[in-house]
Design goal:
By secondary structure, this protein is an alpha+beta fold. It is about 65% helix and about 10% strand. Strands 2-5-7-8 form a four-stranded antiparallel β-sheet, with no helix packed on it.
Amino acid sequence: MSGSTPWPGRDVRVSAALVGCLLSLHAVLTPAAEPSAADPMPEWLTLEQAFAMAAESHPELERARAAVELAEAQRSGVGADTGWQAFAELAPATADPSTDSGSAWLDDSRARIVLSKSLYDFGRSRAREAAADAGVDSRRWRLAGVRDQHRLEVMERFFAVLLADMRYAVDNEEMAFRYVRFDKARERQEIGIVSDIDVLELEERYRTALDRRTRSANQQMLSRMALAVALNRPSQLPRDLVRPELPDNDRAVPDFEVVAEQVVEGSSVIRALRSEVTQAIEHVAAARAGRRPTLSAEFAAGEFARELGSRDNLSALLNLRIPIYQGGSVAADVARAEAVLRDQEAVLALRTAQLRQYTLELVRHLDAQRIARESARVRLRFRDRYLDRARAAYELEMETTLGDSFTKLTEAQWVAEQIEFDIALTWAKLKALAGGPIPEPVAQETLQ
């Protein structure tokens, strides 16, 4: 066996050093392109700061805001259709009067200013405006849902970075322990105490642990990139994160029926779909109003190059237009609007049932994680006591597995944190489903 295998080091703080070097290299090679690059990433990033950054700007949020603005513009357009309209009418013209065969061509030009307004259309404009209002409400609820989902994504990726760092610590400790055993075996091999195959077996275990640690180091970088993208700062990878306090994790598991009722009543998704159903209902009403008359008014002032007795410089007109035959266009519009309404109602019913099912899954998952949490705490206490016993045996120079005990303790801590973060994320999902803002990492008494 060669004696050139590098000593990996046992201090888990090598994780921070490794990530720091990788982030420094990334900062040199990657240009800072995002608009918020002038505001640097905090050296120690908290979850509250991550939430604040997420609220600033993100492509998904911008798309949802643009959808709201588009719906508002469409609503303004509907109102403009029934308001006053003014236009100038210029008609240069020449005419050859048929009554006077000997006359030359005459200037018959005219200019008019016309004001017109739809006075009453028997419910058509009212239905269109109501549909436009419902469309705006729907887009605003969609924006609220996108905002909640984005905060959930930030929370999930924030936790993923913390877990990636802990996983690296576990794998780094395991690799160090395997290396120590392998290195001692090589020394004993030189004096003929350990066989070649035993040394090879220990080296294989060390190499497997080294591969695992390498993958963990890669995951540290990848999880940071995912968080940076969620914060819309892909060229500013966070270096160190502050583990948040999670006092809400101690709350009792809520009753499913209570939470389900809150979800059905308060979910931004359900509210958006209800607005879309309302919009579809109003579109049906507007389509049916196509069979009804329309009353409009027109006022005009004009100048004419040729004076005739039938021409008026000032005029006012009331026009009642009564549909008699539309060639089936109104019936087609009504059928299309009714089909859209049935589809929206089906989507609302389906999504409501799905959200109830998802709520039940979250509540039951929360209940299961509470049990897993207690098991993890017992396992953690056991590993801590076992490490104390292994350390005492080591100090007495007895045969011991101190390194292995420390590795198992670190892994038990990682498992316990996985459960804690999962519980916190599940509570946040329940809060978002119920239509409330996702809580900051502070205590909350109720879902609402």
